[in-house]
């Protein structure tokens, strides 16, 4: 750990919410002549390290991990089911640590389509950690930015049907409360590993003013140091939010 970088990062304003698009597991494995699944196993370990680090150092209060997109269903079924097994193991094995370290788990995505065992551990640990006041760890799982916006639209339509909302009453702030991310502030920083420079249907509404950071590092190789480098880069950005700043 480069403590000089840590000290520097801790001296400047930190983001409130950092979201990580964990990409590059397959390429990590291929480069070593290993099956893609091994990349995912190593990727799960990288995720554990990062969660522990952010929780312990209290760098920021909200962390989102993009773990499985609505488009990832088009992968081979064996890969999809291994990903779900790893996620179930992650929640089950990390669960106790999450409870004890004050982490609040929130899963973002359509969990009804997931295997029953995975749904059960998610529900169990969301309930057990509900009152925790430490890091909020959001896991975007079977999540798509378009799905999320559509959820908001569906809820708005249902309210309108019950005459609780009219089109004129629906302002941005009201709509935001109808989204799956209603209790999570918009991300200040979105980091994508693996070198691709796109959002791949991640946060669409929420990313309106996020700073984007892309690194070629493949997810299994992403370390605490890599996160600190992204934070240092973020701290050097000028966020205008449409204003003129001197
Ligand atoms: C990210 O790594 C993990 C998920 C999308 C679940 P990939 O599996 O996309 O790895 P690459 O992009 O093929 O290297
Ligand atoms: C984005 O990675 C989704 C997650 C990290 C969960 P992908 O590997 O699925 O993205 P594309 O297909 O390269 O856009
Ligand atoms: Mg990928």
Would you kindly provide a written description of the structure presented here, covering whatever features stand out?
The protein has 246 residues and is an alpha/beta fold. The protein has a single domain, classed as Undecaprenyl pyrophosphate synthetase. It has 8 helices and 6 strands; from the N terminus they run H-E-H-H-E-H-E-H-E-H-H-E-E-H. It has helices at residues 3-11, 25-30, 36-57, 77-100, 116-129, 145-161, 172-176, 224-235, and strands spanning 17-21, 62-69, 104-108, 136-143, 189-192, 211-214. Helix 3 (36-57) runs parallel beside helix 4 (77-100) and helix 4 (77-100) packs parallel to helix 5. The longest helix is centred in the middle third of the chain and has 24 residues, at 77-100. Bound molecules: 3-methylbut-3-enyl trihydrogen diphosphate (2 copies) and magnesium ion. Residues 21-23, 66-69, 72, 196, 198, 200 line the site of one 3-methylbut-3-enyl trihydrogen diphosphate.
The main pleated sheet reads as:
6 strands, parallel
The CATH superfamily appears as Decaprenyl diphosphate synthase-like
Q: Which hetero ligands occur in this complex?
A: 3-methylbut-3-enyl trihydrogen diphosphate, magnesium ion
String of helices and strands? HEHHEHEHEHHEEH
Q: What secondary-structure arrangement, pairings included, does this model have?
A:
Elements: H1 3-11, E1 17-21, H2 25-30, H3 36-57, E2 62-69, H4 77-100, E3 104-108, H5 116-129, E4 136-143, H6 145-161, H7 172-176, E5 189-192, E6 211-214, H8 224-235
Parallel strand pairs: 1-2, 1-5, 2-4, 3-4, 5-6
Bound molecules: 3-methylbut-3-enyl trihydrogen diphosphate (2 copies) and magnesium ion.
Residues 23, 194 line the site of magnesium ion.
């Amino acid at each position: 750990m480069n403590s000089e970088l840590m000290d520097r990062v801790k001296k400047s304003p930190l983001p409130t919410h950092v979201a990580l698009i964990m990409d590059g597991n397959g390429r990590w494995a291929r480069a070593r002549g290993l099956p893609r699944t091994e990349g995912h196993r190593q990727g799960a370990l990288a995720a554990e390290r990062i969660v522990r680090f952010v929780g312990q150092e209290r760098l920021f209060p909200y962390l989102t991990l993009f773990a499985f997109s609505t488009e990832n269903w088009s992968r081979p079924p064996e890969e999809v089911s291994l990903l779900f097994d790893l996620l179930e193991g992650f929640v089950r094995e990390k669960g106790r640590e999450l409870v004890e370290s004050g982490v609040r788990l929130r899963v973002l995505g359509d969990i009804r389509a997931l295997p029953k065992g995975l749904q059960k551990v998610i529900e169990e640990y969301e309930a057990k950690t509900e009152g925790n006041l430490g890091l909020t760890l959001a896991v975007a799982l079977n999540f798509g930015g378009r799905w999320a916006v559509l959820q908001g639209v569906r809820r708005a339509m249902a309210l309108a049907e019950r005459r609780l909302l009219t089109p004129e009453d629906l302002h941005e702030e009201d709509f935001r409360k109808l989204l799956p991310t209603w209790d999570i502030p918009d991300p200040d920083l979105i980091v994508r590993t693996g070198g691709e420079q796109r959002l791949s249907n991640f946060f669409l509404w929420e990313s309106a003013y996020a700073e984007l950071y892309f690194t070629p590092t493949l997810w299994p190789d992403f370390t605490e140091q890599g996160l600190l480098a992204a934070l240092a880069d973020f701290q050097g950005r000028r966020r205008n939010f449409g204003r003129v700043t001197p």
